């Protein structure tokens, strides 16, 4: 396809949507498109210089006259400026609020030719769409977009139901890069975390929001640890971290729970694990589950949102009812205690990650949708 000029807006900080948007921009740039990140900070996965990737910083100023910084407006203004200066073909925004709304404004401000694609990632639908003060503006952002995608079938259906939207929305799954390198021998890394040879490793990675149910992960681990010598690696940070640290102390398992905070070399760390726990009560996709599968780690997940579209129950991991940490612990032990099952699931997880969620296929799907969008007047 012809090389396009694409503006990408996302939250640039740690988080699945920022990762997906940045990786998408990188892959598109490798394919010859000209990419303009229009964001409030440099996307954290933009780890090296690319000649055809530009970064345009959105100012988030705190003027005394404003009680709250007008991010949505400065973003719209920057999007319009970049659209005009670089003659962008399209703006691809991640999240309906405020990004799709800012893009609609930018489109109007810059003469109406630029196309807008919005990708829904979850929170604006599963949490914010329940808030009557935001429903109308979310619906507006979606309806004003030329194309809308969501990261799972669950999220497409949820958006239609919650917001009563008739517009066609395309499910486009998140993806992993094909060339994930992890050291074949992880002994040194295990030793550096004081993980003994006879210990199993369970990992959980999230932003420690209440919806992630990290307390269920800790409680499940306590039960696993009663049966097997094991360590729990907690990767990530967020507002519940302190209360989780308190829970770990109250359970008396602090020796075996490692809080690693935010990390950049996540594949290396995840691949230390024998299983991942993702016990969220809301999750439109579950990128961390896919990242674990990509390095052959079976995932025990909950039966909510898009998780069952990522984990194949009984094949690449096990799905158990949300809030039932005892069932999650039993499922984890079943995998850890059966080496043949573990090996089978590990291989199946890798195969599924690279066949169904392959970056080449998913990026090509986005390109096809861009082309369709640009063909329409
Ligand atoms: O899960 C979060 O709290 C972060 C959020 C984000 O904006 O990155 O994640 C959402 O988008 C990810 C990428 O598409 C999905 O993998 C997560 O499932 C989704 N989170 C929720 O639905 C809660």
From TrEMBL:
GO MF annotation: an example: glycosyltransferase activity
Alphabetized InterPro entries for the sequence: Glyco_trans_1, Glyco_trans_4-like_N, Thiol_BshA
Limits of the Glycosyl transferase family domain: 188-351
Domain Glycosyltransferase subfamily 4-like N-terminal: from-to ranges: 14-178
Highest taxon of source: Bacteria
GO biological process, one term: bacillithiol biosynthetic process
Protein name: N-acetyl-alpha-D-glucosaminyl L-malate synthase BshA
Species the sequence originates in: Salicibibacter cibi
Gene coding for it: bshA
């Amino acid at each position: 396809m012809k090389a396009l000029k694409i503006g990408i807006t996302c939250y640039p900080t740690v988080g699945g949507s920022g990762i997906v948007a940045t990786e998408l921009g990188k892959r598109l740039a490798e394919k010859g498109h000209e990419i303009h990140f229009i964001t409030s900070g440099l996307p954290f996965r933009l780890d090296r210089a690319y000649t055809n990737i530009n970064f345009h910083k959105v100012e988030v100023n705190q003027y005394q006259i404003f009680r709250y910084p007008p991010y949505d407006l400065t973003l719209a203004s920057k999007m319009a400026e970049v659209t005009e200066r670089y003659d962008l073909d399209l703006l691809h925004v991640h999240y309906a609020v405020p990004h799709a709304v800012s893009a609609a404004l930018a489109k109007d401000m810059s003469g109406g030719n630029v196309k807008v694609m919005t990708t829904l990632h979850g929170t604006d639908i599963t949490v914010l769409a329940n808030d009557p003060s935001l429903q109308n503006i979310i619906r507006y952002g979606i309806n004003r977009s030329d194309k809308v995608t969501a990261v799972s079938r669950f999220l497409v259906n949820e958006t239609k139901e919650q917001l009563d939207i008739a517009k066609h929305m395309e499910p486009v799954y998140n993806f992993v890069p094909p060339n994930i390198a992890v050291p074949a021998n992880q002994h040194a890394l295990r030793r550096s975390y004081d993980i003994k040879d006879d210990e199993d490793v369970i990992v959980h990675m999230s932003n420690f929001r209440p919806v992630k149910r990290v307390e269920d992960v800790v409680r499940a681990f306590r039960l696993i640890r009663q049966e097997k010598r094991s360590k729990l690696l907690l990767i990530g940070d967020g507002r519940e971290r302190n209360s989780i640290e308190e829970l770990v102390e109250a359970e008396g398992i602090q020796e075996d729970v490692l809080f690693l905070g935010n990390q950049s070399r996540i594949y290396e760390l995840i691949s230390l694990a024998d299983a991942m726990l993702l016990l969220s009560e809301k999750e439109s996709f579950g990128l961390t589950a896919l990242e674990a599968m990509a390095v052959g780690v079976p995932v025990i997940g909950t039966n909510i949102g898009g998780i069952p579209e990522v984990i194949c129950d009984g094949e690449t991991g096990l799905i158990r009812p949300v809030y039932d940490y005892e069932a999650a612990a039993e499922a984890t032990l079943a995998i850890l205690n059966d080496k043949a099952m573990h090996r089978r699931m590990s291989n199946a997880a890798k195969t599924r990650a690279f066949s169904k969620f392959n970056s080449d296929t998913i990026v090509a799907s986005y390109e096809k949708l861009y082309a369709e969008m640009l063909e329409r007047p």
